[in-house]
Write a structure and sequence with these properties.
The complex is a heterodimer of chains A (478) and B (81).
Chain A: H1 7-24, H2 28-31, H3 35-39, H4 51-65, E1 76-78, E2 91-93, H5 104-108, E3 114-117, E4 120-123, H6 133-137, E5 143-145, H7 149-153, E6 159-161, E7 167-169, H8 179-183, E8 189-191, H9 195-204, E9 213-217, H10 230-239, E10 244-247, H11 248-266, E11 269-270, H12 275-284, H13 298-309, E12 314-319, H14 323-327, E13 339-342, H15 343-352, H16 370-373, H17 380-392, E14 403-407, H18 409-420, E15 428-432, H19 451-460, H20 467-471
Parallel strand pairs in A: 9-10, 9-12, 11-15, 12-13, 14-15
Antiparallel strand pairs in A: 1-8, 2-5, 3-4, 6-7
Helix pairs in contact in A: 1-4, 1-9, 1-15, 11-13, 11-17
Chain B: E1 2-6, H1 9-13, H2 16-29, E2 37-41, E3 53-55, E4 58-60, H3 68-80
Parallel strand pairs in B: 1-2
Antiparallel strand pairs in B: 1-3, 3-4
Classes of the chains: A alpha/beta (478), B alpha+beta (81).
Chain lengths: 478, 81
C-alpha cells in the first residue's frame, strides 16, 4: 500500500531510512559511502540523465539527513544539483497563438516587450515585467503563465532564482513552513533532518536507564499512518526505544485555557501555536509582535510539564512540521524540547528497525481532551479557545469572542494586514501557515481531503471531554 | 514522603485522576499534608499494570479506587509509623 503522497517523498524517505539504519547500528562512518549505490543500483538511470547524477543527488540528501549545513540557520535547504532549473520566464506564447491581426497583446504591453515574428507573438524576456496584461487580453488564451513550483508554493516570496537559475531561499524572508519542500517535483528542497541526533539520544540513554527519552506526538498523527491504528504507532515508537509517548494535545489543552484568559484580558490576540505563523508576524508585521500570545506552543508546553516531573528527560517532538525544527532553537524554547522529527522521518525510523506497525499490539495514547486534539486542523484552535473562555466562566457579555481562523499563510497575511490597519472586525487570529492546519504540514506522510474528519474522530475518542477535565491533572505536576 | 502517581496514557485511562483525588482525600483525612508531597509523573514505566504509583522509591502497581485504602495503609501509613 502507498504510504506517501509522492515518489519524491519516497526517495527522501529511502535515504533517511538508510542513514537511520547505519546510525542505529553504529556504522555511519563506514556505511555512508555505500548509500548512493544502494539507492541507485543502476545500470539504468530512472530519474535523471545518468546514475552518476542520481547518486550525486543522493549524496546531497545524505548531508541533509545528517543535519545539513550547520552554517545555515534555516532548516530548509536547496539541493543545488537536484534543482532542475525549471523555466524562469513566467510568460510564454503557446501553440494557440494564431498570429491574429488585432495584436491586442502587442498593444497592451506597457514595455513594448511583444512583437510579431512569422505571424506569431514573441515575448522579449529582457523587457517583460510579468504584469500579465497580455495574458488577460489574448482572445485565444495563447499566453501561458508558468511559475516554478517552488515559487508558486512559497506564498511569501522567499524563493527567487540565482544567477545559475537555481532556486535560492532568502532566509530573512523564509518562515520554514516547508511548503516548497513538499511542492518541488524534483525534491530539490529538503528540510534538515535530526534523526541521527534522536537515535543517538536513544542509544546514549542505555535503554532509558541513564535518562528517559520521551516522544511527544502532535495531534495530527490521527490523520497519519492510515495503514495502522494509533495504538500500534505508539507501540512502534516504544519499540524504537522511547520510554514513553505523550500527547502534545494535552499541552494544547493548557494553551487553549491560558490563551482564552490572555485574550479576554488583552482584547486582541494572535495565536502562538504555529511557529511559521509566529515567525511571519515577527518578520513581516513586527509592530504586531506584542499581540502574539505569550503562551508556549503546545509542543513546548507539554515538554515543560514533562521536564518538571523528570528533569533529566530528553524530549523528541514527532509531528508534521518543519518549522518546529527551527522553533526549538528559539530563545524561549531552548533546552525544553531536545529534538524534532517529522512523521516522514518516523516512518524511516520504523523501517530502519523493521518495526511492522500492523503486527504490533495496540497501546494507549490518551492524555488530552477533544479540544486539545482538534488543534491539528484549521479552526480547531479557535474552537478550543471558545471552550476555554466558557470554562473560565467568561460570558459573552463580559467578553465578546470574535475569532478568525486563517487557513494557510495567505489568509494569515490578509487578516494581519487588516489588523495592522485597525480594520479587522475579529479579535482573535488563529494563524496556521499550512493549508488545512497541521494536517497539511510538509512533514506529513499524506495530505488527504479526509484528514480533517480523522482529526475530529480522534478528538471524539478522548476520554476527557472538556479542557479542564484534561488539564486538572497538571496541577499535580510540580 | 514523596508519592507520585503515573498520569501516562495507560494509567490515565485506568483512572489516575481518581487515584490522585483519592490520595489527596486520604492524606487530608490522616492529617499528613505536611509530611507527604503528592505529585504526578508522566510515566513510571509500568504501562500494562496501571495505575502505577511510586511511594518514595517503591513502585506499586495495579492501584484502583477499590484497593486504594489498603494500598495507602500498607505502603504509606506503615512506612510513616
Amino acid at each position: 500500500m502507498r504510504i506517501f503522497d509522492t515518489s519524491v517523498q519516497e526517495l527522501k524517505y529511502k535515504v533517511l531510512r538508510e542513514v537511520a539504519t547505519l546510525a542505529f547500528e553504529d556504522r555511519l562512518s563506514t556505511g555512508l559511502l555505500d548509500i548512493p549505490k544502494t539507492i541507485v543500483p543502476g545500470p539504468q538511470a530512472t530519474m535523471r540523465c545518468c546514475i552518476y547524477k542520481e547518486r550525486a543527488i543522493v549524496e546531497e540528501r545524505i548531508k541533509l539527513a545528517l543535519g545539513g549545513d550547520p552554517e545555515n540557520e534555516n532548516v530548509i535547504e536547496v539541493l543545488n544539483i537536484a534543482c532542475d532549473e525549471c523555466p524562469v520566464s513566467r510568460f510564454k506564447v503557446g501553440e494557440a497563438c494564431r498570429g491574429c491581426i488585432a495584436h491586442r497583446c502587442v498593444n497592451v504591453c506597457p514595455k513594448g516587450a511583444i512583437s510579431i515574428h512569422n505571424q506569431k507573438a514573441v515575448i522579449d524576456d529582457e523587457k517583460c515585467v510579468e504584469c500579465g496584461r497580455c495574458q488577460s487580453v489574448c482572445p485565444y488564451n495563447a499566453i501561458i503563465k508558468s511559475v516554478r513550483p517552488c515559487e508558486q508554493a512559497c506564498k511569501i516570496n522567499a524563493i527567487s532564482m540565482d544567477e545559475n537559475k537555481k532556486a535560492k531561499i532568502d532566509n530573512d524572508k523564509c518562515i520554514s513552513c516547508g511548503a516548497c519542500v513538499y511542492q518541488c517535483p524534483f525534491g530539490a528542497i529538503m528540510d534538515k533532518s535530526y534523526i541521527v541526533k534522536a537515535i543517538q539520544m536513544l542509544k546514549d540513554s542505555d535503554h532509558n536507564q541513564k535518562y528517559h527519552v520521551y516522544a511527544v506526538v502532535a495531534p495530527s498523527i490521527s490523520s497519519q499512518f492510515s495503514y495502522a491504528k494509533i495504538g500500534q504507532v505508539v507501540s512502534g515508537i516504544k519499540a524504537l526505544g522511547f520510554y514513553s509517548v505523550v500527547e502534545v494535545a494535552l499541552g494544547a489543552d493548557m494553551v487553549a485555557y491560558k490563551e482564552a484568559k490572555e485574550l479576554s484580558e488583552k482584547g486582541f490576540l494572535t495565536s502562538s501555536c504555529c511557529p511559521a505563523f509566529v515567525e511571519y508576524i515577527e518578520k513581516y508585521f513586527p509592530d504586531m509582535k506584542g499581540d502574539i500570545s505569550h503562551n508556549y506552543s503546545p509542543m513546548a508546553q507539554i515538554a515543560v510539564y514533562i521536564k518538571r516531573t523528570d528533569p533529566d528527560a530528553k524530549i523528541v517532538f514527532i509531528g508534521p512540521c518543519t518549522a518546529k525544527k527551527k522553533e526549538i532553537s528559539r530563545e524561549k524554547v531552548k533546552g525544553i524540547v531536545d529534538c524534532v522529527i517529522t512523521f516522514e522521518e518516523l516512518q524511516a525510523l520504523f523501517d530502519s528497525r523493521n518495526v511492522e506497525l500492523s503486527e504490533l499490539p495496540e497501546e494507549t495514547l490518551d492524555n488530552a481532551s477533544y479540544f486539545g486534539r482538534i488543534f491539528a486542523r484549521s479552526g480547531g484552535l479557535a474552537d478550543a479557545v471558545r471552550q476555554g473562555l466558557k470554562e473560565h466562566g467568561i460570558t459573552d457579555e463580559a467578553f465578546e469572542y470574535k475569532p478568525i481562523s486563517c487557513d494557510g499563510i495567505e489568509q494569515c497575511k490578509i487578516a494581519l494586514l487588516k489588523a495592522s490597519k485597525g480594520v479587522l472586525p475579529e479579535n482573535f487570529i488563529e494563524g496556521m501557515a499550512c493549508q488545512g492546519g497541521c494536517i497539511g504540514g510538509a512533514g506529513c506522510l499524506t495530505h488527504g481531503p479526509k484528514d480533517k474528519n480523522e482529526v475530529d474522530k480522534y478528538g471524539g475518542q478522548a476520554r476527557e471531554k472538556g479542557i479542564k477535565d484534561a488539564i486538572n491533572i497538571l496541577k499535580f505536576v510540580k | 514522603m514523596d508519592i507520585s502517581v503515573c498520569i501516562g496514557s495507560s494509567c490515565h485511562l485506568r483512572g489516575s485522576y481518581d487515584i490522585i483525588k483519592g490520595l489527596e482525600a486520604l492524606i487530608e483525612q490522616h492529617g499528613l499534608q505536611n509530611q507527604i508531597n503528592l505529585a504526578a509523573a508522566f510515566c513510571l514505566g509500568n504501562c500494562t499494570n496501571g495505575v502505577t504509583i511510586k511511594v518514595n522509591d517503591r513502585i506499586v502497581t495495579g492501584v484502583s479506587t477499590e484497593n486504594l485504602p489498603q494500598v495507602f495503609k500498607e505502603h504509606v501509613l506503615k512506612a510513616l509509623s
